[in-house]
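Thread: quick sanity check before group meeting

JM: Hey all, I'm pulling together slides for Thursday and realized we never actually wrote out the predicted structure for the chain we discussed last week. Dropping the sequence here so it's in one place. If anyone has concerns about the input, flag it before I start.
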Amino acid sequence: MTSIKTEAVKIIIVEDYKLTRVGLRSSLNEFEGIEVIGESETGEAGLQMVKELSPDLVLMDLGLPGMNGIEATQEIKAFDENIKVVVLTSHERDEEVLAALGSGANAYCLKDIEPNTLVSVIKNVKKGAAWLDPNIAQVALKLFPKPESTKVLNSVGISDARAQLTEREMEVLKLLVKGKSNTEIAKDLIVSVHTAKAHVCSILQKLCVDDRVQAAVKAIKENII
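JM (edit): ok, ran it. Output follows.
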């Protein structure tokens, strides 16, 4: 039986340091299922390349000359929200992490990430998952303000958000926090991808968040899971 070959994830690299761009392109192209179709040293040129080449995913640095990576991510998402953006940077400051996630980035990676891990992140993000570098995950919790008082929650032992979720949605949320894509959630729970997607949409609505990253952060922040 002939195996079906998965279509490669088409990537554009936006990075101002040439040595880093060359290294990333060379490293990524060694992996099956990855294809670097373009690279740019500025946010403006990267945005134009996105419009011309329609990639699946953009690997985005933050500290770019002119239009920075956060602004470029916002523009890319405004052009086509289906294009995934994986931030790859050395920046760990709170405001930059929060701004990047707020701009619509699907993943936030630090540049010391192992190539195998980066490729795994890229492939899972392409499927719909979200990912945060463990070293900056605590920063992401600041997306949500601390409650003024925990007395009420402690007295009942469960948050209002958790009470709204069904047993199945709790299962889905736990998998979502692990970075699972809709396809992987469907496989783990033995349901259709359509059903998994419907559960995720319901969870986002009930938690009053805009995306999977914020849902995962809120689940951890408020001890929902």
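AS: nice. The beta strands are 9-14, 34-40, 57-60, 84-89, 107-110, 131-132. The first strand starts at residue 9 and ends at 14.
JM: adding both to the slides.
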